[in-house]
């Protein structure tokens, strides 16, 4: 009841106010009401127009915000794809950047000549095969399709001198340690190819200034700075699954300690243990002094000779090739039919099977099994860039236990040791799966 009385009072008050306004402006009440209506209509139309404009502005701002959100989503998507591509490039063994086809002026390098049947037998139908002819000249094969659509093999002459730079002949595979440019001449002016990390090339020549003469997978001869190449890849898996029957094998080997006479002689001492097991009466000192190829530090190529002297504590060591040379030199002096065979690159299971056959295996690993190897010293020897991997050690693999998942080695520094197989395989592969067997 009170609210109803209040409303009546309000209505009466508004009516009185309206009459007073009409009296003040001296206009009839009806005319005043019409004017108020017209004013209200105008205001409503203006409000509608302003409302439409506001809606348009809001819609425009909303569209802008939506576009920005879409741009952010697209940027995130592209960033994610770029990261994925980068990870794929880092994990892939040989990623090659997109590039234009190689165009080289090689007419003067293509030589047409006849080959003997013996020479032709050395050539497989693929690119990059190096052939030495009877006159001593060397060629690299390059297959292509002629104008009539017939498969054809051409032979590109490997020049020993280019732009006044002389290359000593070689024939081995190397791998680019980083993305690196390759050029059509040793002057390094016209880059025609970009090699991906760990891409494989056949090296056919080395110059004293460190320039490498390389054969690509399509048979072209290109040139690059050898500093960016290695003989072995560093991206290979460091694990291997061994599926063999449950058994324990351990060969009997008379232990030899490299100390005190050969403080850096683990490789040649391991060879001496293997030769003595085969019945040869030989000492590690005799093998080191008279059969192991050696050269001074900074002048030695550890792929084929010992860096320094095993008798000296400030020396380094050698890789499998040097031990193969030492072993075969000694075996030839004894008139033996045994031969040292380089098993580098073999699966570890292959080595275990050799041990099971009664053949001890000389393998490269780390001196301290719980520590990774690391790069230390760099040399340039006869134009080849060499990087020494520290913590190197050489032992004789003489047994294994598949139930305990261990390997048994004769260590020239410690005697018989038994190591976890997984860890030992990792160290073995970190030193490029190097192994030597006398058989």
SS elements, strand count: 22
The N- and C-terminal alpha carbons lie at a distance of 121 Å
Count the DSSP helices: 8
What is the helical fraction, as a range of percent? 25-40%
Question: Based on CA inertia axes, which overall geometry fits?
Answer: elongated
Number of domains: 2
* CATH class division of the largest domain: Alpha Beta
Sheet having the most strands: 7 strands, antiparallel
Describe the structure.
The chain is of the alpha+beta class and 439 residues long. The chain folds into two domains: 107-230, no CATH class; 248-438, Cathepsin B, Chain A (Alpha-Beta Complex), CATH 3.90.70. Helices cover 33% and strands 27% of the residues. The chain contains eight helices and 22 strands. The protein has helices spanning 2-25, 29-91, 117-121, 266-277, 284-290, 320-333, 348-356, 421-430; strands at 130-132, 138-145, 151-157, 161-162, 165-176, 180-183, 191-195, 200-207, 211-215, 221-225, 229-230, 248-250, 294-295, 306-307, 340-342, 361-366, 374-381, 384-390, 392-401, 406-411, 415-420, 435-438. Helix 4 packs across helix 5 (284-290). The longest helix is centred in the N-terminal third of the chain and has 63 residues, at 29-91. Residues 1-5 and 88-115 have low confidence and may be disordered.
């Amino acid at each position: 009841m009170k609210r109803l009385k209040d409303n009546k009072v309000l209505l009466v008050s508004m009516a009185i106010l309206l009459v007073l306004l009409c009296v003040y402006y001296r206009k009839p009440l009806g005319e005043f009401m019409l004017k108020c209506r017209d004013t209200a209509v105008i205001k409503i139309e203006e409000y509608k127009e302003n409302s439409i404009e506001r809606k348009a502005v809001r819609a425009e701002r909303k569209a802008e915000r939506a576009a920005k959100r879409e741009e952010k989503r697209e940027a995130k998507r592209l960033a994610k794809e770029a990261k994925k591509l980068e990870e794929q490039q880092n994990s892939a063994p040989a990623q090659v950047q997109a590039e234009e086809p190689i165009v080289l002026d090689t007419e003067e390098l293509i030589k047409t000549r006849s080959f003997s049947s013996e020479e032709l037998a050395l050539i497989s139908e693929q690119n990059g095969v190096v052939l030495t002819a009877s006159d001593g000249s060397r060629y690299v094969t390059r297959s292509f399709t002629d104008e009539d659509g017939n498969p054809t093999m051409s032979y590109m002459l490997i020049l020993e001198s280019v732009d006044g730079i002389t290359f000593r002949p070689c024939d081995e595979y190397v791998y680019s340690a980083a993305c690196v440019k390759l050029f059509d001449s040793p002057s390094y002016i016209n880059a025609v190819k970009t090699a991906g990390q760990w891409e494989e090339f056949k090296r056919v020549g080395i110059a004293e200034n460190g320039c490498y003469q390389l054969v690509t997978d399509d048979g072209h001869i290109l040139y690059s700075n050898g500093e960016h190449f290695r003989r072995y890849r560093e991206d290979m898996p460091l694990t291997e699954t061994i599926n063999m029957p449950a058994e324990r094998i351990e060969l009997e080997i008379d232990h030899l300690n490299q100390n005190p006479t050969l403080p850096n002689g683990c490789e040649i001492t391991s060879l001496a243990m293997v030769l003595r097991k085969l019945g040869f009466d030989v000492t590690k000192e005799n093998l080191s002094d008279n059969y192991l190829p050696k050269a001074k530090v900074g002048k030695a190529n550890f792929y084929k000779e010992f860096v320094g002297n095993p008798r000296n504590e400030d020396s380094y060591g050698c890789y499998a090739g040097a031990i193969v040379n030492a072993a075969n030199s000694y075996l030839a002096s004894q008139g033996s039919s045994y031969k040292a065979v380089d098993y580098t690159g073999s699966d570890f299971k292959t080595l275990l099977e050799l041990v099971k056959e009664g053949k001890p295996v000389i393998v490269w690993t780390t001196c301290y099994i719980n520590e990774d190897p690391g790069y230390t010293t760099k040399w340039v020897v006869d134009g080849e860039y060499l990087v020494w991997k520290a913590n190197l050690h050489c032992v004789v693999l003489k047994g294994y236990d598949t139930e305990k998942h261990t390997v048994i080695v004769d260590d020239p520094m410690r005697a018989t040791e038994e190591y976890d197989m997984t860890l030992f395989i990792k160290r073995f592969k970190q030193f490029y799966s190097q192994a030597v067997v006398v058989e």
